[in-house]
Amino acid sequence: MLRLLLLLLLLPLGGPAALPTPPRRRRGAAAPPPALYLTRYLRQQIDHFGFDENLTFQQRYLVADQHWKKDNGPILFYTGNEGDITWFCNNTGFMWDVAEELNAMLVFAEHRYYGESLPFGNESFSDSKHLNYLTSEQALADFAVLIEYLKRTIAGARYSPVIAIGGSYGGMLAAWFRMKYPHVVAGALAASAPIWQFGDLVPCGTYFSIVTNDFKKSGTGCSESIRNSWNAINHLSSTDTGLQWLSSTFHLCSPLKNLQDAAILKNWLSETWVNLAMVNYPYKADFLQPLPAWPIQEVCKFLKDPSLSDKLLLQNVFQAVNLYYNYSGEASCLDMSETATKNLGQLGWYYQACTEMVMPMCTDGVNDMFEPQKWDFDALSEECYKLWGVRPRPSWILSMYGGKNISSHSNIVFSNGGLDPWSAGGVTQNITDSLVAIVIPDGAHHLDLRSRNPLDPKSVQQARALEIHYMKQWIEKAGRNH
Known about the structure:
Layout: H1 2-10, E1 38-45, E2 56-64, E3 75-79, H2 85-90, H3 93-102, E4 105-109, H4 128-131, H5 136-153, E5 162-167, H6 169-180, E6 187-191, H7 206-218, H8 222-236, H9 240-249, H10 259-278, H11 295-300, H12 310-325, H13 346-353, H14 377-388, H15 396-401, E7 412-417, E8 435-440, H16 458-480
Parallel strand pairs: 3-4, 3-5, 5-6, 6-7, 7-8
Antiparallel strand pairs: 1-2, 2-4
Helix pairs in contact: 5-6, 7-10, 8-12
């Protein structure tokens, strides 16, 4: 379980806590045809904050201006997060849906060290020296420089109000962008942005409690079956025969050989339950994996009786995870290295989680359905030192962005889904009249940023309407100032 907590911390936020290494590319949901945007590059400083080196790299960004009102119409600016920007572009249908109504240009900016925006090319991840410029601060500076460049070079954009939009880590960046560069962006929509999942701002166990509640609400006996499955695996993995049975029952591509492999199996299952909580959408989707509508309800149909014998219980657990990994029916075996899309940047996020993105998490096995594990910063620090030769700085994000002391800022909407475990570290209550929280009770991970869908719950429809209302306010106010 300790390994799981380290993995959850070290794994990408934007697609949930998941190892992004599937065997084939997943289609993005509601993807706009590629012809709808142009791909551009801007030469950026590798180090915005020092003057000793003058090295540069090419930052990729995507532009769609079909609906833009060319006389200082607004710009909706996606603050790219930990992955390929085309994937985020294709999974942020909300921006495409509102572009015409707002007469807006869309810009999707890729985060340095992800996708094609690699400061040192193939050497970018070679060591901590080359990774030294992978920080949220450098990324925000890239965004600011890009916006200033666009306003300077696009005719009619000089006074265009810019609104930052992002989800998950991208939502954190959108909020922080407005805080640090209020002269560059007029406002920000920060969706599913756990800006308070740092230090001791929130209890470390809330994240896993939310995952558990999602399963508890989706079927009688469901969360209890999962809680009981860990001991069942422990019992069976204590013998070679049991390990063989587990390998066969779970149709694993690589058979379990020892207790360490059994621990990896438990981590893989835990990540699967977490991912399901994050993508518990009201319609068929394939954000991380192809899944049915309300997938946790479907999974829980297999997990009704927690009192079953070890083998019967685990056979049901296999049926449940098989729905996540093999809904299409194409997989001949299940690969424990596969939990989500490969469009997320695993290596880069590993490094960020080992430096400034230190988000404490823990489980107790009582308020959640996982094996108990305390938060262990020292273990994380050792893991990071082994991986990169660096030590995490757990309080730096609080010093940099203010923690809960942010009431002096303005024009940020924080949206969170009640089903999304990352809401544990999100802003879920209004702070001021212009630091607004929108809670979507039926929403999973940044559901509001996805395309409109006839099956959308009323709560997300209302949330989007409110988000548009605030964006119009910011645009109008910015227009009056010029």
